[in-house]
Design brief:
The complex is a heterotrimer of chains A (277), B (525) and C (333).
Chain A lengths: L1 H7 L2 H23 L31 H37 L1 H16 L2 H11 L4 H12 L1 H15 L2 H8 L4 H37 L10 H9 L7 H28 L9
Helix pairs in contact in A: 1-11, 2-3, 2-11, 3-4, 3-6, 3-7, 3-9, 3-11, 5-6, 6-9, 7-9, 9-10, 9-11, 10-11
Chain B lengths: L2 H11 L18 E5 L15 H10 L4 E3 L5 E3 L2 E6 L5 E6 L13 H15 L1 H7 L2 E8 L2 E6 L20 H4 L19 E7 L3 E6 L13 E5 L4 H9 L5 E2 L6 H8 L4 E4 L9 E6 L9 H10 L2 H7 L5 E3 L22 H10 L11 E6 L5 H15 L3 E6 L3 H9 L5 E6 L5 H4 L1 H4 L19 H12 L3 H18 L2 E7 L3 E4 L2 E2 L16 E2 L1
Parallel strand pairs in B: 1-10, 15-16, 15-17
Antiparallel strand pairs in B: 2-3, 4-5, 5-7, 6-7, 8-9, 9-10, 11-19, 12-19, 13-17, 13-18, 14-18, 20-21
Chain C lengths: L2 H36 L4 H6 L7 H10 L6 H13 L5 E2 L4 E2 H36 L4 H14 L3 H15 L17 H39 L2 H9 L3 H39 L4 H11 L2 H29 L1 H7 L1
Antiparallel strand pairs in C: 1-2
Classes of the chains: A mainly alpha (277), B alpha+beta (525), C mainly alpha (333).
Amino acid sequence: MDALRAFLRHPSGMAGLVLLTIVLIVAITAPVVFPVSPWEMNGTPFAPPGEDGMWLGGDTLGRDVAAGVAHGARVSLLIGIASAFAAMMIGVVIGAISGYFGGKVDLVLMRVTEMFQTVPAFILAILLVATFSPSLLTIILTIGAVSWPPLARLTRAEFLRLRGREFVEAALCQGEGTARIVLGHILPNAISPILVVVSLTVATAILLESALSFMGLGDPNLMSWGFMIGAGRTVIRQAWWMSVFPGLAILITVLAINLFGEGLSDVLNPRVSRRRA
Amino acid sequence: MNRREFTAAMLAAGAAIPLGITRAAGQTKGGTLNTIIQPEPPVLVTAFNQQQPTLTLGGKIYESLLKYGADLKPMPGMAQSWEISPDGLTYTFKLFPGITFHDGKPMTSEDVVFSCMKVLTETHPRARQNFARVASAEAPDPLTVVFKLKQPFAPFLGCFDCTSAPIVPKHIYEGTEFRKNPMNDKAIGTGPFKLKEWVRGSHVHLVRHDGYYRKDEPYLDEIIYRIIPDGASRALALENGTVQLVQWSDVEFFDVQRFKSQKNLEFTTKGYEYFAPHQWLEMNNRVAPMNDKRFRQAIMHLIDRDAMNKRIYFGNAKVATGPISSKTRFYDGKVKRYEFSIEKATALLDEMGLKPGANGKRTELKYLVPPYGEVYQRAGEFFRQSFSKAGIDLVLVGTDMAGWAEKVGNWDYEMTQNLLYQLGDPALGVARTYISSNIKKGILFSNTQGYSNPEVDRLFEEAALALDEAKRQELYSKVQQILVEDVPVAWTLELEYPIIYDKAFKNIVTSGIGSHETFGSVYKS
Amino acid sequence: MTGTRSAARIALLIVTWAMRLVAVILVIATFNFVLVRAAPGDPAMVMAGQSGGADPKILDDLRKEYGLDKPYLVQLATHLGRVLTLDLGYSYRQRRPVLDLILERLPATLLLTLTAFCLALLIGTTLGALAGLAAGSIVDTLFTVLSLLLYATPVFWLGLMLVLVFSVTLGWLPPFGYETINAKMTAIERVFDIAKHMIMPVMSLAAIYLAIYARLMRSSIIEVSHQDFIKTARAKGLAPARIVVGHMLRNALVPVVTVAGMQAGALVGGAVVIETVFAWPGLGRLTFEAVLQRDYPVLLGIFLILSIIVIALNLVTDLIYRLIDPRMTTEAA
């Protein structure tokens, strides 16, 4: 409750929350405000913003850019959240095992984590998506597969910290099983910093997905912001609006998530908040 | 005048045939032509690769016996004259004297026989089909080649352009593994230009072949093919004069418009008559519901070809009416028409029992997007939207070039888009898509959709063997009517690619082969 | 801190780095091996990727060459051996050895990446230090807003926006490519021409990381300025400029350099996208083409080489780390 009150008084965090709410509203109301599919080619090709009833202009096939941006919000948020969730599953499990058991297990898992952090994540993502064919599922799993290391590191650090605490010692003395200790005692205390990093991972996931779609490795049946920018690249001279508006949408969404996440971090972990990579 | 008088006059003049070719005065020799090749060809030897970039570039290096005018009639290439026996079985070609390869060795009839019967039959699928009709090929003297056919084949004279029968040196390739021959990198041919240097990723540099057999040709000193992978950069290069010629899909369709009005550039859609690229939505006839004629007809009704032309090709095409292009011989427009009508389409679907389910969906099909550029992606999106109106869900599947070729060649697809050359005569470029004997697994540009109709087979075979033009027209008209009724594939557009070049250069387009020509008569004024 | 001791320490650093390099190469090579076999389809087809459906003869040759009929471990051993002798395979699509293709494009990518990395680090830390020293002022707030915006910007979109403004609208800079084609220039002219073409790609790539380093530097400076030894230095009466340069910077740089090392992978990834936007003829461009053609030997080779570049950048940051604060090393060790 204190945390909530503190958050409400945090200017940039609140700004982030407001922006995020706007994005969510756009995403949720898209089918209502833009009932026609963004793939429909009803308008004039290359229509500038305002013409033909299309507020943000039309693309090379006469599709409504505004509809694309609105529906694209659903796609980007869906992929962002699902990928971050996937990264969380992988990262938290690895980090928990590493931090709890320590020793050789920790050493091996940390080397693995280091390896993943060494290789360029985007290239690995390209490789994986190209190998297993671009689709919604492969993209979510791929982004999850390259984004988990920071979560693993954080979880491990938290587990190491909490493992030595008295209540854990007490639980061990009472003969409680590993699962019970981890899930019942350690995890609830570690959850807040983990959630902060997860929310920030949503932002990086959205950026990663847009880059993949831009390169043509997105799901061809989904109208995402990255796809729109990619489609507008070759015609930037004739139709600047195709690239500008979807990009602004990404910028605003990622900014909102970052501000919100940082605000959350400030409020929940005032100690470590300043030192964020 | 007949062929004899014609070529005698040409020999006497020592210059090019009066078919829109301007005669160059002596002092206009010299100059460099910068142009584009897109995408970068894997190899320059046209005998081994028949994709457009190789053919465009290779046409300067490798020549064949004949060329074809805009009216698709044969003109002398390396053969100065030819004779066909009355029974249509013997073809005798007389070569020009003094033809040499780029390494200085002379070209003779032995090289022609070797190339056609030994090399091309192994490496060139189209040539293989053509020369399979030959019973024997002989070289009675160094300047004479005689082909004896098993059966009469009227279009045989159409098999000898630089893209169908390029001549390679026997003294280099005899007894070797053709594709792995180290001399492939040097690309030795008889054309007016020889390969000086190929800097991968940058450019291909061709220079004049001084021993070229045609008097005064070539006029240009050199041709440089620049490799610019980015579409916008290519358009920019043409605009600011960095390159002086573009062809085929070098410049995107939506960009083509603005070059029409650029003062220093000439714009034409001539030069593609021999190829007449014909495009269609291909449906795998083996897969339900595409095995039912009514479904295929419904698809024809669902594609608004005019809208497709306007939105995706920006008017650079003509609506196709059937299997034969309006630019190819024996075209007949008197066939069934499928106007754009969602009602007619849904009526057909209902009739065949493909009713919409609870959510309005009748069926779902996978569409393989050919990875040759954005235009194909847009076309796929266009089809998806069009078909959704009748409850047909199209799922777009992306792939790479090898993957597409493999899937389509091996019939592992449901729908895709395909583009084939017509090659001037239905027997050469059209029949291959519809006859049962060309249902060959693993081979691209064959009858991949698996359509089989004995009547169509019979008509195509008869028309190929008939020598009388009127008879051939009658047969081809019949086959067009049957095919348009059966709809083995949904024909969409006859693409009209541009050739855009700097006005300073003359004789860029002198035949129906256009940009694949030798460019020996091109000069800079 | 005697001379020999620091020299020995550097030597140890390089040796451990080299061992790490070999370990990473082996791991990635193994991963590549597994990936090709995990991919849907016949591994020979996957690697041949020829258009027109692969020639059965070539497929057979490939199978023999890669020993696809032998047991997995034998295949893996052969593969690893090849990689360690720098044999990265053959691209059938481009008909050249993969290593040749990569070496050809490597210089352009190194030019782009290293320039961006250095600029981001230098400018970022400078701006961050200034903002940190002016903490709380309007300049500082402006700085924070700007860096937050940059951090949220997709790198490829930033590149496109720069093209839109500086090329399409203002016409100041060339939109694409490495240099002007067809122009015959002297060496000096060529250098300037390439530099002109480099401005936007480098700016787009550097901007994001610049924002990260600047923000980090700022908070680092603020934190350091409150620490005890700074107060001691002040008490000793050392001139303010000396304090800043001598103590604060060195200590504040430590986390920034560490993060720069960790971000090297992302920077290299960003270069790939930027090269696609600007048609820059480097490895990124090659990646894009290889993806279109599903040219696996090339993709895997690029993955390996780029990872090596990342590790090399890590070595650079490690050395800088040691350079700026040898005292920290003793504590850590």
